[in-house]
Amino acid sequence: MRTPTNGFIPWSAVDIQLRAARTIWLATSRPDGRPHAVPMWFVWLDDIVYLITGRDLQKSLNLRGQPWVVLHLGDGDEAVILEGGASVVTDVTEIEAVDHVWANKYVDPGSGTRDTVRATGVDLWRVVPVHAMTWAYGDIGNRTDWRSLS
């Protein structure tokens, strides 16, 4: 997803923002169609967003019923918006790779305890973006879109 369909913001600027951010907003749909949006910790690895959620939480129930999501980074002035399908990660090698990055990203500043994606009762979700858009403050005309070739 590195060739823009319009605009001029480089993919490297999007990549840097996604690597640096601590949280991203996840928007899902409830079974009755009502939207549900929550901030989430996440890892951006190889152009994929990884999130964890408890199996009994609303967002997990939503993802199981309707896996299409929108992820939003930023405050609306410096926006990065990703759209794609979510799926549960079951591959042990992939889980280990994500857990390594996750544990280095989310460290308790007081105790040094590292978080893990392997917590009891949670699933690791993979979101492969098929559409991304971004813009920068001051010129909505600089909106840049990317579409997946896969």
What descriptive keywords fit this protein?
150 residues; alpha+beta; Pnp Oxidase, Chain A; 9-stranded antiparallel β-sheet; 3 helices; globular
Folded structure, characterized:
It is built from three helices and nine strands; from the N terminus they run βαββββαββαββ. It is an alpha+beta fold and 150 residues long. It has helices at residues 11-20, 58-65, 92-105; strands at residues 4-6, 23-29, 35-41, 43-45, 48-54, 68-73, 79-88, 122-135, 144-147. The mean pLDDT is 91. It is globular, with a radius of gyration of 16 Å. Strands 1, 2, 3, 4, 5, 6, 7, 8 and 9 form a nine-stranded antiparallel sheet that branches. It has a single domain (4-135), classed as Electron Transport, Fmn-binding Protein, Chain A (Pnp Oxidase, Chain A, Roll). Strand 8 (122-135) and strand 9 form a beta hairpin.
What is the fold's blueprint, element by element?
Elements: E1 4-6, H1 11-20, E2 23-29, E3 35-41, E4 43-45, E5 48-54, H2 58-65, E6 68-73, E7 79-88, H3 92-105, E8 122-135, E9 144-147
Antiparallel strand pairs: 1-9, 2-3, 2-6, 4-5, 5-8, 6-7, 7-8, 8-9
CATH class: Mainly Beta
Question: How many discrete structural domains?
Answer: 1
Which percent bin holds the helix content? 10-25%
| Count of DSSP strands | 9
- By CATH, the superfamily comes out as Electron Transport, Fmn-binding Protein, Chain A
Q: In percent terms, what proportion of residues is strand?
A: 35-45%
Backbone structural class: alpha+beta
